[in-house]
Amino acid sequence: MTKPHVSVIIPFSRKEQAQVVLACLGQQTYPADLVEILLVGAQSSVLSQHWAIKAVETKPIYYPGEARNIGAHEAMGKYLLFLDDDCAPAANWIEENVAALKRPGIGAVGGLIAGKSRAFFARCVDFSRFGFYQVGKERTMVVCSASLGVEREVFMEVGGFDETLRSEEDMDFCYRLQAHGYRTLYQPTIKVIHDHRRTTLSALLRYSYFYGRVSGLHVKRLYPGLSRRNKILSMVQHPYLYPLMMLPISLGATLNIVRLTVREHPAVLLYSPFIVASKLASHIGIWRWLLHGAPLRGGGNAE
Question: Are 249 and 279 in contact (CB under 8 A)?
Answer without folding.
Answer: yes
